[in-house]
Amino acid sequence: MAVSLFYFFVYPGLLFMAVTGGLLSWYDRKITARVQFRKGPPLLQPFWDFLKLMLVKETILPRQGSRFVFLLAPVLALFGATMAGLFILLPLFNIETGFKGDIIVIFYLLTLPSFSYIIGSLASGNPIAAVGASREMKLIISYELTFLLVVAAVIMKSGQEFDLNSIIAVQQADKPFIGSISGVLLFIAGLFCIQAKLGLVPFDMSEAEAELASGIYIEYSGPPYAMIRLAKYIMLFILPAFIVALLMNGMTGGIGVLWLILKILALVLLVTLIRNTNPRLKIKQASSFFLIWMNLLVIIAIVLNAFGL
User: Fold this and answer.
1) What are residue 214's phi and psi, to 5 degrees?
2) For residues 136 and 256, what is the distance between their CA atoms, to the nearest angstrom?
3) pLDDT (0 to 100) of residue 253
4) Which of 89, 146, 196, 274 can bridge 203 by disulfide, Cβ–Cβ 3.0-4.6 Å?
């Protein structure tokens, strides 16, 4: 029990993911600043932002709606992100536990933060938040199918292995899946899926600060919003780590730790550059992008994989 609690709360759990995610958030903001010819924030700025929300800002509850559900949603989002991250990082860091990292379980846990934001925004009773929730639901329907197809294709490439340990082991015994044509196509589709899961431009229509004044988060403040920010920090870390585990060989011993860090930094760099070089899409455009083009890309990858490419 003590070991399990250590894994969940310390390493590679909540504390480790929160610190790493905060550092990656600074990395993301620093790159954004450089692209825009600004200096950017200091290293600890994401942590100060979190502490200010948690310790200084007050929680303002909406008059209408369900206050209990409104406050519960950020807790569920943080729990889902932490559990998904734990099940991704344990196999990725070669930590032996009873759980082998079933990627179907991980897939569903990764959807929990987005659904929590929807529930919380609807519970606020704010019509603007309801518009953001409607957009988020449509976006989830679009990209989750693509993400599921990417996971299914990885299972096929690994010889019908469903646990993350075995998928990483197959790649380390042969070569990373991204080293094939089908793997490159899956990487492209997976990259856009994590862009949408993170709610970043061009897929930030549910938040859309200029249109909806933060949309699904409009009523959140203080500690509840701090938990949402923390869940986003964690997702910024674990989603690239998941792609690394699925397609990029995971982590090997020795220099593999440094190589893993470089791969995650490279993925966050790509996500940040996409965010800073594209305009926001309309929800119809985003749905068409995933339901037609990204699904087609993954299907082509599955066909190529059948031919050993």
Assistant:
1) 80, 0
2) 37
3) 58
4) 196
